[in-house]
Task: structure prediction
Amino acid sequence: MGHEKCGDHLVFSGETALGNGFRAVLYFLGLAYCFIGLSAITARFFQSMASVVKHSRTVVEINPSTNTEIIRHEKVWNFTIADISLLAFGTSFPQISLATIDAIRNIGQVYAGGLGPGTLVGSAAFDLFPIHAVCVVVPKAGELKKISDIGVWLVELLWSFWAYVWLYIILQVWTPNIITLWEALLTVLQYGLLLIHAYAQDKRLPYVSFPFARGKRPEDWVPEEADSCRSEPVNNAYNEYSEMHQESEDGNSRIVDIFSIHSQHAAESGILSIWKQQFVEAIMLESAESRKLNDKTYMRLARKLWKALLLPWKLLFAFVPPCRIAHGWIAFVCSLIFISGIAYVVTQLTDLISCVTGINPYVIAFTALASGTSWPDLVASKIAAERQITADSAIANITCSNSVNIYVGIGVPWLIDTAYNFIALREPLRIQNAKGLGFSLIIFFCTSIGCIAVIVFRRLTLGAELGGPKLWAWLTSVYLMLLWVIFVVLSSLKVSGVI
Result:
């Protein structure tokens, strides 16, 4: 490899006796397996989040003309706030956890860790380009899905762009290469301003909202899947635990496991029996539905091998409580805890990969870490693009995740480190390779303009941001992927000192 032998290890000290090349392969495989785990726990997280958003309360009103009671059910959560907080924050939690763990490991140091900021900026590029590229081609051929609330999208887009302009200002303009306590605090507080502004736009409050009419919105945040989508998938890790929340005729919410042969019984049984069923399904390599499929032998074998690979993750995530408990909040929190645990292992593996290969940690952060930790964002946006009749949540998850990456994902770790340095060391927090990070921000800003331009062009010509004729959808997808490649290559060359 051309550099000193790495003395660090992950589990056993005997790892150091192995060659650096062999260790690099093992650690990369471990990193890939962690990303598979992230995709699997994303399903549990998304189901719990859907349960939280579906929660409604009973409102009793008196009809003044007839003096009779009118009972109606209204959603507890505002869909716009749910997109910005639950969806964007939850799907960005791997990056947030990784950055926070990196900050805690470096607490008391004069220089901040570079793993978190590099991953978050790289994740922003992955969200904006590859995830947009996937969502564009997800709708069926000829199907168009457009943003119904342009005003809210503009608010989210402006705050997303401002987040990266703000990051460049505090890194290169106000206090070059230094982050102060007040800069970190202002970064975090801007997330609250985003929530307030988006809510004001959703409610069309005067003076602070754009004068755009709202189109038709879905009644349910995540509509039910069509019957054609209920067959068992072959290679979709995130569908291994797919529960659907259905509204019965009397309005009572119930949970149906759409891939279980016990679905109808599970809906009527107690929570413990549903929880038990999660463990039973976790160790099943082939369900009754998959046995009914007339697949060829090699397809059935491939499916069994894939499920065997997922079995440890499936068994571990079966401990996440069913979503029907406490409106899904317990499952939501447990999912985030598991995500944090995986993020910790990912940080350790990344350090070891950098140690044994000599690759700049920023390069690993821009590429492997950004792509892997952004997988929940990809899954969430893909599901929203498939199931919702509009493109609002699919695109909102992208723009809002980028805002959350800066305001929370970078703001909170820097706030932790700057607060400690301010109190204990009486020194500001210094940023290593701030120029390289600033260069990446400039490249991201330029390429993001190209991305938004094509999205707006599709709205003006096709009438929708997602879907449309397959040829145009795929051309858009390829164009967005090229923008991502440009960002990754130029950023990696800069932080490596090549340019």
